[in-house]
Amino acid sequence: MSFDWYRFREFDRDTVRAAREPYLEYFAEQGPLLDVGCGRGEFLDAAKDRGFDALGIDLDPAAVEAARSAGLRAEVADALEFLPAHLDEFNGIFCAHVVEHLEPAATAALIRAAADGLRPGGVLCLVSPNPGSLPTITHEFWRDPSHARPYDIEALAFLCGQAGLEVTASGVDVSSPRGFAIDPADLDLSEIKFPTDPTPDSQPRLAGAVASQFQRSRLAAEMRSTIHHQQMRIDHLENQLEKIANALQRLVEVLYEPSEIFVVATRAGAG
Q: Are 119 and 91 in contact (CB under 8 A)?
């Protein structure tokens, strides 16, 4: 169903590849690399161009055929059956947007099988939707009918530890979409310039005399006092507005985190 969902949503291959390619930085270029749930092969395509010996597996025959049609190595296989038959074989295993299709017991079994499929020092990279992202957890995640449940970074890190892997990196993919309801830059008040009335360099002698006389009057003193108090109120309002804008900006940043998380874990025993 997942491959059908990709076709239904018309996900662009180049866009998916651009989102997957940065994760290659976590893998050494020597030794075989396995892509679990390879789909149409966007990650495999990027890996091939970078000189990796990459193989993909997927449950969906149509997805595998799409990958093969692109000149990539892929085969139809269930990871929980494939990996136990390939123990200690891979330097790296990549698994993007797979675990969220599985219940916890199956996800734990998949991570254990991946750990067993790695060579000592091998790297597992898990990528999944971010449940800390408001648009993701409220609607984007649940649009895919094949999604079972979301996993956050801590849950995936825990399961990696249970499988005997050491987590070496984790976080949110800052390049992934955030789905902002508003532009946080709109809340930045630092660029606002308030206009000021220009002061003339010179004025006619009569006008200057009148202005000088007025400045010494009681009315002028009262006006200066009123202006001073009004300016104090304006300054206070500007300070309060800045506090509100800063609070809203922090709230938006927290609610609209990047939509993708990752966990990278290593099997001990290298060297």
A: yes
**pLDDT per residue as tens, the chain (271 positions):** 566 666 666 677 888 899 999 999 999 877 899 999 999 999 999 999 999 999 999 999 999 999 999 999 999 999 999 999 999 999 999 999 999 999 999 999 999 999 999 999 999 999 999 999 999 998 889 988 899 999 999 999 999 999 999 999 999 988 888 776 666 676 676 665 555 555 555 556 666 666 666 667 777 777 878 888 888 888 878 888 777 777 777 776 767 888 999 999 999 976 5
Query: Of 47, 44, 12, nearest to 27 (Cα)?
Result: 47
183: its two tokens: 């532009």
Amino acid code (one letter) for 80: L
Q: How far apart are CA 135 and CA 75, in angstroms?
A: 34
Chain center to CA of 173: 3
Name the nearest CA neighbour of 98 among 111, 115, 117, 116.
111
Measured in degrees and rounded to the nearest 5, phi and psi for residue 130 equal -90, 110
Spell out a b/e string for 32-68, using b for 16 or more CB atoms within 10 Å of the CB, else e: bbbbbbbbbbbbbbbbbeeebebbbbbbbeebbebbe
Amino acid at 149: R
- Cα–Cα distance between 271 and 259 in angstroms, integer? 36
Query: Tell me, what amino acid is at 85?
Result: A
Could you identify the residue written with the tokens 């998949």? 110
